[in-house]
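Q: My labmate handed me this sequence with no annotations at all. I'd like to see what the chain might look like in three dimensions before we decide whether it's worth expressing. Could you predict it?
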Amino acid sequence: MFCCLYNYKNKNKAKILIDRKQGTDKVHKFLKENGISTIKQDPTTKFLKQIQKTIKSCTQLVGKKTQGYLTQIQPRAPLLNALIKTNKTNMPIRPVVNNKFAPAHNLAKFLNTKIKNWQILPNTYNASNSLTTAEDLIRLNIMPNKKIITLDINDLYTNLPTKGIIEATKHWLGLSTINKAEQEQLVSTMRIIIQHNYFQYNKQYCQPSKGVAMGSPLSGTLA
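A: Here is what I predict for the chain of 223 residues:
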């Protein structure tokens, strides 16, 4: 039996035909290496109640007119789609999670917009896009005895230190002019969203022991 997985990364947009068991084994290897365990029940309903309670309690952060839009009407567990990294040794999976219908998705999106509008992060070394990066590289005067190297973090989102993220957020908020009540509510809301890190694969519910949710609108900023 074969299953077809689509690789979005490679420029040739290759369709990958792989034995179903081999594909499943790759997913299980990813889960094991990243400390992701299976849970017996779907936590979606429990998470939705927590989100609703959080929204109602954040009166300084979320206006009454906005509260209704932040509650997911028909939430469901995010789905894991396993793509294949054909350019990597042993061709591991590229986990892609559809977080759009997760209980925390709307609130995470709202919080991410808040953080960006407040501009609490200096983003001194962030590149806005590949074009500006290329232009910056062209302007570099590279000596013959120097090299340019690139570094990549393996499975970034599943390995982020959540405690460090909270402390860093507190630090940058403390340097801003945002009032104390909003600061405290933002941090407490962020804690809840970070805890809502789960997904569904092959009719099983999985929950990482660390990191942030793959596919969440907030995870890129947290990183």
